[in-house]
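User
Please review the sequence:
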Amino acid sequence: MDSIFNIKSIIMKKLSFLLTLSLLFLFSCSVDEIGTNEKLNTDYSKKEQKETVTLGFNLVFTGSYDYVGPSENCPNLFNVINNGVGTGTHFGKVTSHFDFCIGPDNSYPNGYINSYFEDENGDKLYVYVEGFVLGGRVPGIPNYANSYFKDSFEILGGTGRFEGAKGGGMTNDFNSDKDPYSHHHWKGKITMLKSK
């Protein structure tokens, strides 16, 4: 009976020793992990605390219709690729790229669109726009315009200093009888990180 008691006592001492070691190991890991988590949380909160600023957005550019025709991206519609150049607030010199579908009713419907502006440093600002190309002209558009498109646009973020940007506004665009180009004047608001 004493030997059974002694065996239980030895087992209990070993378990107690292992439990103590386990707790020490656990607490030493937890302290390190807490320190790491606090550092991560601090870095994350600093990122979240970056100030944003909302500014006016004004772009004037002229586009060239580089392609109009069929495409896998636009089944039963026409694919239009328009690239342009111009100037704008927050850009200086800017290039534009629009690759979208247009329907037989002259709509550029919700669906495939790849559109962005790029500044001289290669930073891109992605935008989304949909609407209609309408025949004729309206006040505020030159009398040599043969069609126009006034639609809302949305800023979808970007790269470089435009990372996380948002905002939007209205287009004021037309095609001309005087030249083969599209003429654009976009106005709105953009919210960007202040440091950008």
